[in-house]
Amino acid sequence: MPIVKPQKYKLPFWQFNGHLQTILPSIQRKIEGVSYDRERIELEDGDFFDFDWLRNGNQRLVIVLHGLEGGVDRHYCKGIAKLFSENQWDVLGWNCRSCSGEINRLPRFYHHGDIKDVEVVLSRIEKYNYKEIAFVGFSMGGAISLNTLGTPSLKLDNVIGAVAVSTPIDLKTCSDELEKRSKRFYNQKFNKKLSAKVMAKTKVMDGIDDHLIQDGKIKSLRDFDRYYTAPLHGFKSADDFYYQASPQRKINNIQKPVLLLNALNDPFLTKESYPFDLAKESKYLYLEAPKKGGHVGFCRDKEYYTYSEQRSLEFLNNCSAF
């Protein structure tokens, strides 16, 4: 233990497989009534973060981390933000570099193991004196959350726990999965969005070259990681990036309660992202693996909030002293 038995929930009948449970919420789901207050954070390296806040004077803060090529304007981030804000939490939506609607100022972007940027985020919110801080991360954001809590050198005294939803634990095997012909739709979507950002950057800054994209040589997300993600962020290769940034390397170091919520029919994930044996031996890692939910889906029939949003609130409320 702790293996968590999933609660029963009914999905909309038209979401009858993992692909539809992944794609349709992204297209159809709308979250109303979330009006963020944006704060631009200037960084010492000349770049910036955009923080999107919902603040009501609470003593607890949840930091929401989006997925690859997402942003905190995505439905899953706004759903979490709204639910937590309604339940005595302040909310910080952290947009990774280039993900807030404006290209960042440096050649580098962001990645699954970007712990140094998390350190900056934590240092910039110290002035607000929150008694308790928690993370909710989706996909890549879940990986960042797990890597953060698994880094012993970080100052996490007031961090009470985290929830990681639809999170890849071993990046290489998940990259292999997205290389399959049946997953081409997802692969090309990520590659297209990332490549477009590289091309936009080449028009306004030095230090980044888009000729491989222009020549049609970047055909997949793995190609992008090989020629852009890895060299721009100091990794030797795509495989080195996958190894260094995988939560699999750090999950044993976690000393705070963490819920890993990964649906068994998630089209992005492989068996390595369901660490049942590790969870059975851990005091801190709670693994919940519902049969259905897709990737960052988890919609419930006739319910406003998703299963992952409700479970995140329940789990972190149980970690909280308030």
What does this structure look like?
The protein is built from 11 helices and 9 strands. By secondary structure, the chain is of the alpha/beta class. A 9-stranded mixed β-sheet has the order 1-9-8-7-6-4-5-3-2. Helix 10 links the parallel strand 8 and strand 9. Helix 2 packs across helix 11 and helix 8 crosses helix 9. It is globular. It starts with a strand and ends with a helix. The model has no long low-confidence stretch (mean pLDDT 95).
How is the main sheet built?
9 strands, mixed
Helix content: 25-40%
Give the percentage of residues in beta strands.
Answer: 15-25%
Distance between the termini: 26 Å
Order the strands across the largest sheet as they lie in space: 1-9-8-7-6-4-5-3-2
- Oligomer classification: single chain
Number of strands: 9
Which class do the helix and strand fractions yield? alpha/beta
Q: Shape, please?
A: globular
Mean pLDDT: 95
Compute the gyration radius: what is it?
Answer: 19 Å
Order of helices and strands: EHEEEHEHEHEHHHHHEHEH
Name the poorly predicted regions.
none
What would the keywords be for this entry?
322 residues; alpha/beta; 9-stranded mixed β-sheet; globular; 9 strands
Summarize the model shown.
This protein has 322 residues and is of the alpha/beta class. The chain has helices at 18-28, 75-85, 115-124, 140-149, 171-178, 184-202, 211-214, 221-232, 238-245, 276-281, 307-319, and strands at residues 3-4, 37-42, 48-54, 60-65, 90-95, 132-138, 159-165, 258-261, 285-288.
